[in-house]
Amino acid sequence: GAVVSQHPSWVICKSGTSVKIECRSLDFQATTMFWYRQFPKQSLMLMATSNEGSKATYEQGVEKDKFLINHASLTLSTLTVTSAHPEDSSFYICSASSLPTSGRTHEQFFGPGTRLTVL
Amino acid sequence: AQSVAQPEDQVNVAEGNPLTVKCTYSVSGNPYLFWYVQYPNRGLQFLLKYITGDNLVKGSYGFEAEFNKSQTSFHLKKPSALVSDSALYFCAVRDRGGSYIPTFGRGTSLIVHP
């Protein structure tokens, strides 16, 4: 299957700093990338969907100014948590889809996740 | 609208016994259905999918799932469980004629006892 990487795998930062998480599709072109947040023992919460070259679409309740998403190329999307606070501590997972959105579907390929801890 | 339900938070099974993880869905049209597995502190791994064709779908690691349209179910099964199968399992659905964004269930923790 296709491979998606995330970097870093874990990060600890001080409150008020910004953290950037990278998501890369290593062997395919990802027209669409998804960013999820997962709390302990809970399901995935979709934060936003991004298409290469266009602005991300954020889910209701997700602050777009706090969680900046950039999908500059077909293989790279970044999530920047700005002015992080302890409540932003979570497990962030990205996924990528290799096919056009209209009329087609396939499984998503997930990155390994990034554990963010804000002190 | 699309939704998916995993009615069990946790499933316990003895090693060597068959296992079933339940999933039911709701879509306006026809569904695409998926199962993923998540090991601790890891991302999700794809197990199998139903797109069209045979209702019985075989996937990775000996898992299979049966699409039942009349019961709107897509239960995950394995004939003989392994301790290493212990993980969190997610069912996902996408309406074929709707949003391209799938909806995930809340997850079921599978615990296989030696």
Class by SSE composition of chain A: mainly beta
**Proportion of residues in extended strands of chain A:** over 45%
Helix content of chain B: under 10%
Stretches of chain B where pLDDT is under 50 for at least 5 consecutive residues are none
Report on the structure:
The complex is a heterodimer of chains A (119) and B (114). Chain A is mostly beta strands. Chain A is 0% helix and 50% strand. Chain A contains no helices and eleven strands. The N and C termini of chain A lie far apart (37 Å). Helix content of chain B is 0%, strand content 53%. Chain B is globular and about 45 Å long. Chain B contains no helices and twelve strands. Chain B is mainly β. Chains A and B meet through strand 5, strand 9 and strand 10 of A and strand 5 and strand 6 of B.
List the helices and strands and how they pair.
The complex is a heterodimer of chains A (119) and B (114).
Chain A: E1 4-7, E2 10-13, E3 19-25, E4 32-38, E5 44-51, E6 57-58, E7 67-73, E8 76-81, E9 90-97, E10 109-110, E11 114-118
Parallel strand pairs in A: 2-11
Antiparallel strand pairs in A: 1-3, 3-8, 4-5, 4-9, 5-6, 7-8, 9-10, 9-11
Chain B: E1 3-5, E2 10-14, E3 19-21, E4 24-26, E5 31-38, E6 44-50, E7 56-58, E8 64-68, E9 73-78, E10 87-95, E11 103-104, E12 108-113
Parallel strand pairs in B: 2-12
Antiparallel strand pairs in B: 1-4, 3-9, 5-6, 5-10, 7-8, 8-9, 10-11, 10-12
